[in-house]
Amino acid sequence: MKKKTWLILLLVVAYIGFILYKHNERSMLMEQAEKEQLEVVTSFYPMYVHTSAIMQGTPHKVINMADQTVGCLHDYQLTVQDTKKLYEADILVINGLGSETFIEKAYKQNPNLQVIDSSRLVEEYLHEDEENIDEAENHIHEDEDHDHEDENAIHEEDVLHDEEIGHTHETGEAEDGHHHENDHIWLSLEGTIAQVQEITNRLCELDPAYNEIYRNNANNYIAEIQALSQGANHEMEMLKDKKAVTVHDAFYYLAKDLEIEVVENIPEGSYENASARQIEKLINHMKEEEVEVIFTEARNQDLAILKTIQSELSCRVYVLDALVTEPDEIVQQGTFEYVERMRRNIETIREAFKNE
Fold first, then answer.
1. Is the dihedral of CA 223, 322, 340, 352 positive or negative?
2. Which percentage of the chain shows pLDDT scores above 90?
3. Looking at residues 19-34, what average pLDDT do you find?
4. Helix (H, G, I), strand (E, B) or coil at 313
5. Global pTM?
């Protein structure tokens, strides 16, 4: 009987020892994983979408900095929480082209922070039409010189904050006085592929242990974007040489991908400050070019200037998704959020021109 009792006690002790050993082993593995886990911060939602897709299947943490309801970064104010995220981060993924200049001082406080600028590979794409852009800008300046020949005849209210409503260009003058590119490259399929490639290349350099995962994820992601792009090419025969007006310059690159001519861009800051003379000039230009389509974002669809144009001209306003906030609908599992949302944009554009 005693031998049996001792045997039972021995088995109990052995079992407890085994449990403690496995617990310690798991704790050590968790501690090791914790040490190896990278904290990756993205500047705003499009960068979060791309980076999350590339890093899927790794133990690393991807955190978005700017609140997902903020929209573009131009109006964003850095918070204490953002500064803390940047100070604790190992890697920061930014869009580049001047989007994040307002946080440079903050992220430079972390000397160990590695910054991935996703715009590095898009320079050639951005400057493809540089000569055409220069010609368009010269045309704008000629118009401005003509408009100001008789300054006494123009009331002060006829001048917008920074620029007149006019032809869209890829570059513009920022509030800080520096010349910046149109930074909305995530709304171009080709531009996005370049961004994904750059983010992937840099992650592989900084974290080679997960090189294979990054490459596989990126290849799958890019393949889906390319498939969408090829499908969009079939639309181009119908959309080629179509003309549109845009509100804000967010959709310039998407229009360029589809070979749609943006004949006028209503710049940010001029929405509620355009004079009757300027609106009349815009409407007359739309009539001359036979433009019946205006593209805008959801936040700008109820602007007074659009209602004025529609009251004077037979045109249709279509809302496109700038992808700067979380989607209204849950994206189907197993699909890429970016691809599905851009697919809807292309469908909206096709709908806009189907009767022309």
1. negative
2. 43
3. 54
4. coil
5. 0.77
